Amino acid sequence: MKGKKDKMERNNKKRLLAFIPYLALTALAVLGIINIKWLINVLAGLWNILSPLVIGCAMAYVLNLIMRKLEKLYFPKSEKRIVQATKRPVCLVLSLLLVFILLGLVIGLIVPEIVNIFVVMGETLPVYGEKIRKLLMEYDSQLPVVGDYIEEYLQNGGIDWNTILAKAVEFAKNGVGGLLTSTISVVASVVGGVVNFFIGLIFAIYILYNKEKLASQMSRLMKSYMKPENSARLTYFCSTADKCFSSFIVGQCTEAVILGVLCALGMAILRIPYASTIGTLIGATALIPIVGAYIGAIVGALMILVVDPIKALWFVIFLVILQQVEGNVIYPKVVGSSIGLPGMWVLAAVTVGGGLGGIPGMLFGVPAAATVYKLLQNDVRRRERAAAEEDHEAEEAPQAENNTENEQSDSHSDSHSDNSSVTRQKSLAMV
Hints:
By secondary structure, the chain is an all-alpha fold. The protein contains eleven helices and no strands. The chain is extended, with a radius of gyration of 37 Å.
């Protein structure tokens, strides 16, 4: 009796200990909601500290996709020590070089042309302003009443020039300090971004060079501090997320290259200027799902508008048609099929991700949504299979009982017939 009581007390203690983490998380959530501003400041501070490492992990993940392909191509059948020893550093260096070369080509094609466009716009805008002024003068000569009214309005104090001048002087006084502060803030932000980039790059190189060792250490930690079922769940989650993110990145890059090439070829056929530059720009911005190509289209249309407004109109029409083909044919086949996420949820993921995190949110919102969608899909299928198996077992149970009853009745009748035959044999023997 005493042993049973001790066992119940131990079970109650285990339940209480298991409930404590959930209680602590609930308390933290309530405190976070009450002190939401403080929590936001804390998270912002943590992000400022951890952002180089997060950037490094993201860079390592993307570079690893290229590295894995190169490692498969690097003397795959060779077992020599020199090959095995040099595989990792050589493939790592080649991956970095490949990425930097691609970025250099994109920047080298796009940035000079955009700068040139701004120069041309600066030269052409005064010309357009002069044309507008002459047009207004012709309009004034044709309708002198309007011109007289405007002149009278200006002379009679329709505009208080003294007030405007005073406000301009005040803005100049206060604006110098604000401009200086803004300039310092922008410079500090740029320098901080560059420093974070290089720290992240170094961290990514360390991760890629020791990825097997890090994976082994993570596995040992999970086995040491987690229950086997929880470790299996976390491994399953990470595996699913890895498949969704890698498929999305590969599919999105493939789709961007296809769209950029088609855009450049179409513009070359239609003899629209800046075909290669705008094609590269469209391909680069197409890395952002759904809305990226339109961003590139706006910049491209402005570039062509400076040269030829008619061709700019043709470019807009061509790109609208190309976007329809891309959205309905290329994207579902290349990206949609790879991540298994319907188009409606892709749009929702881009919208929510963009609202939460801007352009990075748009980029990572789709694979994150695909991961959640895949996990839910697999769980629903598992539950449906379990329910179907239970229904099948429930249907088979009465049949089994009937079969058992029939077998029992048959055995009973057989035994009865055997007994009657034995009785008959005994009676004959007595006669």
